[in-house]
Structure formats: structure tokens, C-alpha cells
Amino acid sequence: MAPSHVLRCCQRVLAWIPVIFIALVVCWSYYAYVVELCIFTIPNTGEQIVYLIIFHLSFIMFVWSYWKTIFSTPANPSKEFCLPKADKEQYEKEERPETQQEILKRVAKDLPMYTRTGTGAIRYCDRCQVIKPDRCHHCSACDMCVLKMDHHCPWVNNCVGFSNYKYFILFLAYSMVYCVFIAATVLQYFIKFWTLCRRKSAENCPKNQLPDTHAKFHVLFLFFVAAMFFISILSLFSYHLWLVGKNRSTIEAFRAPVFRNGPDKNGFSLGFSKNIAQVFGDQKKFWLLPVYTSLGDGHTFPTRLVNIDPEQPTVDLQPSIKSNVIDGQVSPRPLSESQNRLLGNDQHYAEDHPDRDVTKTEEAQTVTVTMESES
């Protein structure tokens, strides 16, 4: 037991190495740009001031979003997704998978869940001992179930999921802005240093070139590092923008979520604008700030299903209903403001398009849009 505990501690310590590496690179880039380039290399004071102001703005936003991505605690399933004590004891004693599934189905019938395993079984985590909400997965690195898990990122030493996915997108965006600005402003001095004459006396150097100083090495490496990081981040950032537009996680992109009517890779897609709002919120003024604005609670998500799940109870749309756990039974919750807005937008759409049959059903805090295909 003791060796495994020590091994686990060592793994946690080593997991911070990529983060420390990024932090050291960022600190060096700050010194190289501010001191070696702006103070010791750029002769024009006005150019120095403009470069320093824009650089610090991009630097602050980059560090802020990176910090939030690292230190945002991954969201876990709430207690209502845990088995009651009696059912848990019965589940652990039972050896037959069929009977275990019957226990899980009995508990899950009052939970707002629409996805299943590939075989149609209830998604249950034996390690965390919780019924997995939709889009929730177990992270082996963090050793916990994470709501709307996207992936575990070693560069932030954290799980990217419901609680910090917006921060992660902004971290990629501002790191690209940071690298592009550095590379663009350093380029002219990179060319001058690259073609720098080797004369010992600075007075004998051509006017279009710079004296051979120690700043040359910082400027040369600064351009290479900025360009290298920009190229590597560009593909990752583009891919995640595509995922946001489709309202998918990385896991769902490789393995489509399974609903009662079968796998559906677009099961959570609500249209491009609503998909964006699911991650960044419905107030555009906060989209570019690393503050929490994502819609929902991470346990339930608006879905677009072809067929209504017959096992899920229909909930009356009453704003006064509150969520309570009474005698082990979970009563329905009210629609959140964001979900009411999503439903309201669809209702306006139905009024403007009477020739299309669009049925709305609210099931346990989930807005289910049923669309009949035209023959």
C-alpha cells in the first residue's frame, strides 16, 4: 500500500513538469522581449511604448486564461447521481450484470439522462460509484468522473471539461495572439541580426544593421520559439473551434454518444449560434474574458433527438418548480434562464415557419427538440 501511495505522489509531482516548462518559456520570452528587444535593441522611444503596451495586454490575457485553465477544479457529478445506500449495497452484492443493470435502471429512471453505453446499458462508474450524467467520463489521470469531459491536457495538468473548457479555448486563442505579435514585431530585428556584419566596432557597421550584442541571441531565439509555438497551436485551436461549432467534445468526436435510438454524433448540436452560446454564454461582452459564462449546470444538456426517450418522464414547464431530493426521489428542476431562452428561440422559429412541424418536449431540465424529417 505504501509503495503505491509513494508512486502516486511521484506521478503528481512529475505531472507539473510540462506546466513548469511552459512557465519558464513564458518568463524568458517576457525578459527577452521587454528587456533585450524593447529596451536594448529598439532605438525609437515611440515604437518602444507602442510595442510594450500591446505586448502587456496580450501577455496579461494569455497568463490569465492559462491560470484559469490550470486551477479550475474539474466539475464532478452531484450526489443525486450516487446510488442510495440500500441500492449500493445490493449492487455490490449482486454478481449478475443483468440484475445490476436492473438496479441502475430503477435509480436512473428519475434522473435526466439520455445517453447509454454501446450496448444500451446505464453508464455507471465502478471506481467513483456514480451513475454518469450525459457527456460525463472518468479521467484516469485525475482519478475522478468529470462533467462534459473533453480530454486531459498535460500542458495544464488538468482535465479540460465543463468547468474550464471556455478558459482552454481562450488560452489557445491568446497564446496564438501572443506568439503572432512577438513574431511580427521581432521579424525586422531578426532579419537585421541574421545579416549582422561581424565587425568588432559598432561604428563601422552599416546603418541598416545593428551592433553585435548579446541581445542578438535572445531576438533570434525569440522569433524561432514564437513561430514554432504558433504553428503547433494553430491546428489545435482550429480543431477545437470546429468542435465548439458542432457542440462536441474530443471524446464525442471519436466516439459518438449513444442515445436510446442509437449513436448520434449530432445529438447535442443545436445550431451554430446556440452551440457557441453553450460554451461562451449568451452575453457576448464576456466572450473574450476568462470568466465563467458557460450555460447549464454540466449535468443536463439541451438535445436534438429524432425519437423521444420513452423511459424518461415528461416534466411540465413550470418556472416555479424547484429541485429537491425527498425520500430518495429527485423532483424536477426549473428550466434555467439559458434553457428558457433556447426554447423561446425555437418557439419563435416555429411561428415564423408554420410549414415545419417542430415539437418541443422538456424532460427533466433538458430541452429536447424533436424534428420530423420531410418525405
Describe, in plain words, how this protein is organized in 3D.
Helices cover 47% and strands 10% of the residues. It is mostly helical. The strands form six sheets. It has a three-stranded antiparallel beta sheet, with no helix packed on it. Strands 2-3 form a two-stranded antiparallel sheet. Strands 4-5 form a two-stranded antiparallel ribbon. A hairpin with a 2-residue loop joins β10 and β11. The longest helix is centred in the middle third of the chain and has 32 residues, at 215-246. The relative contact order is 0.11. Residues 197-202, 306-310 and 313-375 have low confidence and may be disordered.
Reported for the largest beta sheet, the result is:
3 strands, antiparallel
Count of strand segments? 13
The share of residues in extended strands comes to 5-15%
- Mean of residue pLDDT? 81
**Low-pLDDT segments, ≥5 res:** 197-202, 306-310, 313-375
Radius of gyration, CA atoms, in whole angstroms: 27 Å
- Large-scale geometry: elongated
Task: Report, as a whole number of angstroms, the end-to-end distance.
Answer: 63 Å
Strand order of the largest sheet: 1-8-9
Estimate percent helicity: 40-55%
Tell me the structural class. Answer: mainly alpha
What's the SSE blueprint?
Elements: H1 2-14, H2 17-39, H3 45-71, H4 85-93, H5 97-108, E1 115-116, E2 124-125, E3 130-131, E4 137-139, E5 144-146, E6 151-153, E7 158-160, H6 165-194, H7 215-246, H8 250-254, E8 258-259, E9 262-263, H9 272-280, E10 325-326, E11 329-330, H10 337-352, E12 358-363, E13 366-371
Antiparallel strand pairs: 1-8, 2-3, 4-5, 6-7, 8-9, 10-11, 12-13
